[in-house]
Every structure is written in C-alpha cells, then in structure tokens.
Amino acid sequence: MVFRYTPYDGAKRPFTVGLEPVDFSRWLDPDQDLVAHLKRKAQLLETVHSRVFRAEAGTEEAQSEVLDLLIADLGAHHRSTHSVSADAVEVLEGGPKVRLADFAPLEAASRLVQEDLVLMRKGEDGYRLAAASLCFPSSWSLAEKFGQSMHGIHDNVPGFNDGRMGQVVARIFDNLTSEQLVGRYNWSIYDDPDLHHPQAKQLAPQIEETGAGALAHLFVRVERQTLRRLPKSGDILFTIKIHHDPIPLLKSHERGAELAAGLAAQLRDLDDRQVAYKGLTQYRRAIATELENLAPSAPEAV
C-alpha cells in the first residue's frame, strides 16, 4: 500500500518531537513488502554484519526481553504473517524460518520483522545506543553512532541540541513507563528505492531546475518510529519501520493532489539548516514547484 503514512500532509510538523500514543496491538507493522524487506535484511546481516548489528556486553538479557515481547506480539496479533513455535518462527508466504538459537536475541528478533530495533540504555550522560540491529538507516551509520548518547546521535539535527527538542526527548525518556507505547513519523526524499542508506543525504545531480523530470526518480521515505520501555531491564526499545513511496504515483493516487500540496508546503517552510539536513538545498525549489503542479488550486468562483 503506497502512501500508507503521510506525515507531510499538514497533520505533523517536521523537526518536532510529535509523539502520540499507539495501541499495543499496532506496535509491529507488517505489510505487503514483509518478505522482500526481510530478504534484504538477511543479505545485509550476512555480508556486512558489523555495519548493521552492534551490541554492548551486558545487553544480552535486554535483548532476550525484546525477543520475548516480539514473539508474544507476533503470536497474538500477526498469525496471518508469522507461525510461532517453541524454538523457531516462520514468516509465511515465502519468508524465512528463523531458528531463535542461531543468532543473538536482538538479531533473531530483527530477522522476523521489517522494523529495525535499537536499544537505548541510561548512563551518566543520559541514554546511549547500547545495542541495535539497524539494516535500514536513513542517512546515518550505526558504526559511527554506536555507544553515543542522544546528544551525540543527534548532533547534526537542527534544533535538537541547540533548541528545545533534545530537552523534551530527555524528559520523555525519563518519564516513559512500560505501560506506554508512543510513536512518531519522519519524512525525507531520496532518489533510489534502496532501504539501506548509511551515507549522508545527497541526491544525484539529475534533477532539472524546472519540468516534470524533477519528480521522475524520487521517493518520499517515511519512518514510522515507536518507543517503549522494557519492563524488566528498564532499557528503551526504539523501532524504525521504513515506507518508500514513489513520488510519481501521486499523479494517480486518490489523495495525490492533497498530498503533493502538503509535501510542497513543508518543503517551502523548511529553514536553510533544515533543508540542508534533508539534503535538498539544491533541489528544493524544483521539487516543490513540480509538486505544486500536481496540486492545482481550486478554480475561482464565477
């Protein structure tokens, strides 16, 4: 399903925390791309393992806690996509069968779901990235960010450390309970459909200053993120699910004009630091103009 989540439609503001409650039955979010995404994950875990999986010593119990919660959720809410047994979980319709004992618990969990899984553990400098299976990063590197605090992880995010956002996130992390599940969304624009993007954002120089070609090869990439505190370890589990929608499909979507207008408006409203962070400084004008051409104004009354 394309355009399943559209935080750029005016309902959300970029570069804000924007957390909202999520029902626990909707924690995991399998869709029609489940098997394809899991195959891509397996490929990355088997070929560049140290780039996509890291874990501190001493996180093993918390990893097992994540795996237990995830398996329980699959058994309760996702029997149409997963078959759970005592020592393995099979992803149906051509997906993998994962023997749980074959991998570190967090990696086993990650091989079963489209979400990337990140464990944050509190220390002297606040919460740090203590373990992660991160196969589908949106322009950041697990190797670079592993072990860093929230301050370090977000050092290049406009408004996080030099504004209120970092303070708000710190309070949320401290006050989050295991009875709460909260979520938020991010969006960005890429010029290829690959899920694995550990490099900084940079569109290829193929976008014309004007003309429909500005949108031809672009994707709007939406991150669905959730946060929950693990009841035993007290660590915070951060999940990230990627949706990659081809922008040209807005032309045929029933809400295409509305969504194109919303995305164009948010692009126009970004300040210079924000648009640079999204890697769109050179192309914002061309992209916004063509999105607006997909969303013509209503005709004037006569």
Characterise this structure.
The protein is of the alpha+beta class and 302 residues long. It has a domain at 20-192 and 223-246. Helices cover 30% and strands 21% of the residues. The protein has helices at residues 34-47, 49-52, 60-77, 105-110, 142-145, 150-153, 165-175, 256-269, 272-277, 284-294; strands at residues 20-21, 53-55, 82-84, 88-91, 97-99, 116-123, 126-133, 182-190, 219-229, 236-246. Helix 8 (256-269) packs antiparallel against helix 10 (284-294). The longest helix is centred in the first third of the chain and has 18 residues, at 60-77. The two termini are 39 Å apart. Mean pLDDT is 92; it is low at 298-302.
Give a short summary of the structure.
The protein has 302 residues and is α+β, with helices and mostly antiparallel strands.
Shape: globular
Strand segment tally? 10
Largest sheet: 7 strands, antiparallel
Give the radius of gyration. 20 Å
Beta-strand content estimate? 15-25%
Q: What value does the average pLDDT take? A: 92
Distance between the termini: 39 Å
The SS-based structural class is alpha+beta
Largest sheet, order of strands side by side? 1-8-9-10-6-7-2
Q: Which range best describes the helical content: under 10%, 10-25%, 25-40%, 40-55%, 55-70% or over 70%?
A: 25-40%
SS field, number of helical segments: 10
Order of helices and strands: EHHEHEEEHEEHHHEEEHHH
Low-confidence stretches: 298-302
List descriptors.
alpha+beta, 302 residues, 7-stranded antiparallel β-sheet, 3-stranded antiparallel β-sheet, 10 strands
Topology of helices and strands:
Elements: E1 20-21, H1 34-47, H2 49-52, E2 53-55, H3 60-77, E3 82-84, E4 88-91, E5 97-99, H4 105-110, E6 116-123, E7 126-133, H5 142-145, H6 150-153, H7 165-175, E8 182-190, E9 219-229, E10 236-246, H8 256-269, H9 272-277, H10 284-294
Antiparallel strand pairs: 1-8, 2-7, 3-4, 4-5, 6-7, 6-10, 8-9, 9-10
